[in-house]
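Whiteboard transcription, Tuesday session. T.W. wrote the structure tokens on the left side:
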């Protein structure tokens, strides 16, 4: 698979020079892996989309799948022995099921490392995705200056 360099549009959405959408690039990465890592990445991608139907898929940092809703929810990196979902604001999320098992010392991010043969707690992962999206939305709303109004959708 040829490597494509990401460029940024003014909207912040990444588009590849050859015109491939981020979703197609993620599809290609899953196919390219063709082992348990591809299967795992495909499964967590499906769960993310189910948990947050308005999620936007991006392709950043020279080949990292990113899922966003009012900011980054998580990234999906693949390594030789692990598929890593890193939640951008994971340290601020409740994790009652104890999914976070990596990057636990930082003040911002938290990650889940999936190894070959690991079971995915689908309900808990969906809950984390929904919580991350909700946190992004609340942070965005809090950042709006006092007295600022949303533009009417029909305008």
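and on the right, the sequence the group agreed on:
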């Amino acid at each position: 698979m040829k490597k494509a360099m990401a460029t940024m549009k003014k909207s912040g959405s990444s588009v590849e020079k050859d015109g491939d959408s981020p979703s197609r690039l993620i599809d290609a990465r899953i196919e390219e892996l063709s082992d348990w890592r591809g299967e795992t990445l495909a499964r967590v991608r499906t769960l993310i989309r189910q948990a947050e139907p308005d999620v936007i898929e991006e392709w950043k940092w020279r080949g990292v799948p990113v899922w966003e809703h009012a900011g980054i929810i998580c990234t999906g990196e693949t390594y030789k022995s692990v598929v890593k979902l890193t939640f951008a604001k994971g340290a601020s999320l409740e994790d009652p099921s104890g999914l976070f098992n990596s990057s636990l010392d930082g003040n911002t991010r938290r990650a889940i490392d999936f190894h070959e043969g690991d079971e995915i707690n689908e309900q808990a992962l969906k809950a984390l995705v929904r919580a991350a999206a909700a946190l992004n939305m609340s942070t965005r709303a809090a950042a709006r200056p006092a007295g600022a109004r949303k533009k009417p959708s029909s305008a």
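Someone added at the bottom: The radius of gyration is 16 Å.
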